[in-house]
Amino acid sequence: MRCIVAGTGSDIVRELTTRLVRDGWDVEGTTGRSMTVPNDAWDVLIVAQGSLEPIGKFFDCSAEAWWDSVCVNAMFPLLCVRQAWQRRNPGATVVFIGGPNLKHPTPTYTAYRAGKAVIHALVETLGAEYPDTKFRLFHPGVVKTKIHYQTINAGARAGNFQRVMGIVNGIESTVSHDQVYEKFKSLLEEK
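The structure corresponding to this sequence follows.
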């Protein structure tokens, strides 16, 4: 099986890639802010671009930084799918890393949430428009990764600073990369 990854800088994706290769997959990818994907046929496309920044209340963030984040979290992933689309194999699956739980507010992460909300909104629509391809949102859960340092660097601007410190310091339990991989394999098996 062939997997293309857009956003190889993600700790979660790096660990997924290691496990996919171990299980015999052929995996190739590009870094987070790239809007280019390898020019090869694929069975699974993982789209993992993302940034929590800027972190802070909506009107405290610069409009330019806010818009840049929405583009990184929504437009870059969608452009990658457009670019790779014609090279998908029959029955292919597109997996977007899902981001926050949209049923609960995420104060001080408005740009991140807005970008990921666009992806959430389009997954079902894309699946209806292109029933020969599966579109999936992947919610790995709370995983101890380097993205949490964006929150730590934001300090008091982050509404959940103390919680993230607990995650980074091992006080709050998190999902292991092996558990993430098991969830990912289950997602691929869904009809």
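The chain is about 45% helix and 15% strand.
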